[in-house]
Amino acid sequence: MLGFPVLTALIVLPAIGAALVVAIPRTRPEIVKVVALAVSVAVLVLACYGLYEFATGTAGFQFVSRHVWIKQWGISWHLGIDGISLFLVVLTALLFPFALAGSDAHHDVKAYTAWMLVLEAGCLGVFLALDLFLFFVFWEIVLVPMYFLIGGWGYEGRVYAALKFFIYTMTGSALMLVGILALVFIHAGHTGHLTFDLQTLAREQSFSGSTARWLFAAFAVSFAIKVPIFPLHTWLPDAHTEAPTAGSVILAGVLLKLGTYGFLRFGLYLFPKVSHDLAPLLLTLGVVGIIYGAIVAAVQRDLKRLIAYSSVAHLGFIILGTFALTTQGVQGGIIQMVNHGLSTGALFLLVGMIYERRHTREIADLGGLQKVAPVFAGVFMLVMLSSVGLPGLNGFVGEFLVLIGTFISRRWWAVVAATGVILAAVYLLWAYQRVFHGVPEGENLKFPELRWREGAVLAPVLALIVFLGVYPKPVLDRMEPSVRTLVERVDRQAGTHQPSVAQGGHR
Amino acid sequence: MLAAAGFHVPNLDYHALAPEIVVAATLAVVLVADLFLDDDNKWLLSNVSGWGLLVALFFTIELGARGHTASMVGGAYVVDDFALVLKGLFLVVGYIVLLMSANYVEEGDYYEGEFYFLILCSLLGMVVMSSARDLITIFVALETLSLPAYMLAGWRKRDLRSNEASLKYYLLGVLASAVMLYGMSLVFGFSGSTLLVDIGKATQGTITHAPLVTVGIFFIAVGFAFKVSAVPFHFWAPDTYEGAPTPVTAFLSVASKTGGFVALLQIIYIGFIGRSDVWGPMFWALAALTMTVGNLIALRQTNIVRLLAYSSIAQAGYILVPFAVAGSNTKSIHSAFTASVVYLLIYAAMNLGAFTVVIAVARKTRSGDIASFGGLYEYAPGLTVLMTVFLFSLAGIPPLAGAWAKIFVFRAVLDSGTSSAVALGIVAAVNAVIALFYYASVARVMWMSPVPDGDRTPIRIPATLQAALGLTVLVVVAIGIYPQLFAHLGDVASLVR
User: Fold this and answer.
1) B447 touches chain A (CB under 8 A)
2) What is the ipTM score, two decimals?
3) Are strands B77-79 and B70-72 parallel, antiparallel or unpaired?
4) Closest residue of A to B448, CA-based?
5) pLDDT by residue (tens digit) across B392-425?
6) Is the pLDDT of residue B6 over 80?
7) Is A271 in contact with A493 (CB distance < 8 Å)?
8) Backbone phi, then psi, for A75, in 5-degree steps?
9) B440:A152 CB<8 A
10) Is a pLDDT exceeding 60 seen at residue A2?
11) CB contact under 8 A, A148 and B432
């Protein structure tokens, strides 16, 4: 089994699945869903196999698979996984079957499912690629299916939202492409060989400080749009709200992480010095995002839009942890990526269920649902509390680590960010209160209870929310060496040292 | 007797001339056969033309495979790798245009025989252009390729728009030729030779600073700017493209434009390579304007052919970018030249593909409105996917061929490395985003809008169009995934070492 190319299979399998789905005749839509679920579950199994075989305590890349693709340009099919990407890959592999099983397309199931599987291949490709060109290709591939999913299967304002999403992200991509090419050709100019290999480029850095700053900016803008970091976030509420349920789940659960992952893998790794120098700026933007996202979320009338804005706030925490540049902060950021994927993904799925039942997402039209559907309300409450960051659930672990990590290195940012925790409780609890408490009237009286099938889909996510909240150690252990190496690299290049508390915090 | 009159029969390498001879023979056969065929058998002409082009292509590939090179008439006519690659491109483009036209011409009220004759004439001009290394040969080739094109644009004789298309194209084309010829005469006056090689030596040496040489270079460049529809000399293009029959539009926007670029490549990189101080800034301005104006106007189009017309103007801007940055050092000359050639090759495939889809869809909708593409996915999923591939390739999204075209251009910009080059690179990057907006809008209409008249009968695509679509999409995807197939051609086909 050792020679089996797990990572390549992770990307190729959904792509084959998409081709299979396309080949199924239109008259047999019921087979489509079976094939899609089978493929996505197979991907999940493969990802879990990777998780099982992953060597804990190793910082470097594992399962590396490398084949020359375009020799003249030094481009190769180079995949690898380390503690940073491992859980994002597993999260992606988990959320796709979750989204596929949890919601149905209202028309043309075949095309919808095919796009979903292409999207899965693209997302996994982004997390696994260790070659800048390959990374860019997957980064672009992700855009296209998402564009069609929002535009084809979304709600009223879908076409506008799809185009806005597309244009925003493409603007970033264009800049990043220029950044990648500039990085590669400058490197080639100094060393004489052309390569797009991430590790080689990071090892043989050969540009001046100001060049590095420009290159970092080209990457950072692209990632910042994807995350999104305030003030580049305006595409997000539209795209999330108008997307079909599964689209929102993937958008919030996986796509936003592409940006934060990009910062870790390419921002910090390739430009450690600049990352350190510009950290105050990004920390500030992160904090602004936390506060701003929370305040705007509090005043939303549309439940789905409220959750969309809560993403802005949550992603602010991830940025905060990342640019705290301490082991705890970065670890907290990564685990928060996973948490946010689980809890917000589940929230979007639940809101989708509410919409299917009541055909409205207006908070004012809902009320008293707890009386008629107690189990549904209970599930919603658990997920919502995880999003709030209640101790004992997964959200707490991430936010706590982020705040500790930030406090060590950048005290005042952590202080301000901590108020975001309170604000999150305010808007989420208030929303819960308005939707589920009170006396049900009219249509709300007929609100159906959670079905077995829906419960079965949600159960694994609920289990993970509790498990990660109670016992995050296995996850933290696996990511720690890679994160530590990355942070040490930044420290070395920037000429600073982690405060001693951070060093002593582990072992 | 000829010798007595001081005329020496030039020593011609007939083997190296085989592609030209085959095309010339084919067009003669088509012209004569047209007289003797009755209307029911005119379809034979398209077959004869097609086979003629394939035979010519065979000879081109054969010459290339043997590495056969020849220099004739004192260096005015050269068959080398560059010439062969471009000849191959022209012949393939010509063949695809024939595939696109076969049903279109047969079903419309057109003059079939003359149509194929003129297409072949124009192609002959292009094939000759690839080898022309002398101002007079270039001019003759340019006229050979342009004159039939003027007539083809007016092919729908009873349609006012088509007449307008032809007349505008003709008048502005002739004006451009006149300006160019004047520029050539000035350059000849100073260098004393029409051979590009001699001009190259002269402009690097004795006459470097004569102001009239600057004027000459300027006029020649302006003439070609008309031919490749660079802003601000682009005004003929949208009207001509819209009025002409769609296969002719495809031919003009790909083959004819490439013809202009081929001439420009040879003149600039052989003749005026020493004077980048004159043409560098000129091309900088042309490229920036052409990309920006082409893209911005394309945003507002409601007709698909006009949209593709402006998009092809913008694409010409990207092809001009390498010219603008070529002059700074020897490395950038090479990568700029390669970038232009590669862009031309890729542009041909994706643009022809897009036009073929437009023709196929118009067979049913009889309309050129972008709105008529609404809901295309519901009744023609195959065509929709293909069109999406072509549009996204034009937009430069990997892993499609168009992305490589753009990457080669960016490489040229970065190899040059001057701040003006980088500024142009940023203009190009911004434009890539603007362009994406309208390409994505067309995709959006096809995938997401409802069918305008509710008519969901499938489109029957004739075999010839299927073949054209198959060929183009194969090239776009294959190059996108595995560019080595092809980057090789770009490196081989270099006039600068």
Assistant:
1) yes
2) 0.74
3) antiparallel
4) A152
5) 999 888 888 888 888 889 888 888 878 888 888 8
6) no
7) no
8) -105, 135
9) no
10) no
11) no
Neighbouring CB atoms inside 10 A of B302's CB total 10
- Please say whether the beta carbons of B250 and B356 come within 8 A: yes
Tell whether A137 is within 8 A of chain B (Cβ): yes
Chain B residues lying within 8 Å of A134, measured CB to CB: none
Which DSSP symbol is given to A80?
Answer: E
| Mean pLDDT, rounded, for A160-178 | 86
Is the pLDDT reported for residue B276 higher than 50?
yes
Given a contact cutoff of 8 angstroms between Cβ atoms, the answer to whether B356 and B468 are in contact is: yes
Contact A301, A364 (CB under 8 A): yes
Tens digit of each residue's pLDDT (9 = 90 or more) over B349-371: 999 999 999 999 888 888 788 88
Contact A235, A160 (CB under 8 A): no
Q: How many residues does chain A have?
A: 507
Neighbours of A368 (CB within 10 A): 19
Decide if pLDDT at B34 tops 50.
yes
Query: Residue A108: phi, psi to the nearest 5?
Result: 45, 60
| Residues on chain A touching B482 (C-beta within 8 angstroms) | 70
Q: Which of B303, B399, B387 is nearest to B350 (CA)?
A: B387
Chain A residues 55-74 with CB within 8 Å of chain B: 70-73
In chain A, count of helices (H) and strands (E)? Answer: 22, 2
**Mutation site, A11, A173, A183, A194, interface B, largest B CB count within 10 A:** A173
Distance from the Cα of B428 to chain A's closest Cα (Å) equals: 10
- CA dist A311 and A226 (Å) reads 12
The percent of residues above 70 in pLDDT, for chain B, comes to 94
Mean pLDDT of A386-415: 89
**Can you tell me whether residue A208 is helix, strand or coil?**
coil
Q: Does pLDDT of A501 surpass 70?
A: no
Res B260: pLDDT: 92
Q: Is A194 on the interface with B (CB under 8 A)?
A: no
Q: What is the residue type of A249? A: V
Query: Could you report the per-residue pLDDT of A138-155, keeping only the tens digit for each?
Result: 998 898 888 888 888 888
Residue A418 forms contact with B (CB below 8 Å): no
The phi, psi pair for B132, rounded to 5°, reads -75, 120
Nearest partner of B380 among B356, B354, B360, judged by Cα? B360
Angle at which helix B160-191 crosses helix B196-204, to 10 degrees, equals 60
CB pairs under 8 A between A and B: 70
Report yes or no: A404 and A396 within 8 Å, Cβ to Cβ: no
Q: Please, are residues B360 and B459 in contact by the beta-carbon 8 Å criterion?
A: yes
Per-residue pLDDT band at B3 (split at 50, 70, 90):
low
* pTM listed for this prediction: 0.84
DSSP state of B10: P
- Would the pLDDT of B1 be above 70? no
Summary mean pLDDT of chain B: 86
Interface contact A162-B444, CB threshold 8 A: yes
Distance CA B201, CA A51 (A): 67
Burial of A217 (0-12, 13-18, 19+ CB in 10 A): middle
CA distance linking residue A187 with residue A195, whole number of Å: 8
Q: Return the residue of B nearest to A136 by Cα.
A: B398
Lowest mean pLDDT across A24-38, A281-295, A449-463:
A24-38
State whether residue B415 sits within 8 Å of chain A by CB. Answer: yes
Within 10 angstroms of residue A143's Cβ, the number of other Cβ atoms is 22
Chain A residues whose beta carbon lies within 8 Å of the beta carbon of residue B425: 178
CB count in 10 Å sphere of residue B7 = 9
Q: Give the single-character DSSP code of A131.
A: B
Asked if omega into A460 is within 30° of 0 (cis), the reply is no
Name every residue whose Cβ is closer than 8 Å to that of residue B38 and which is 6 or more positions away in sequence. Answer: none
Residue B181, classified by CB atoms within 10 Å of its CB into exposed (0-12), middle (13-18) or buried (19+), is middle
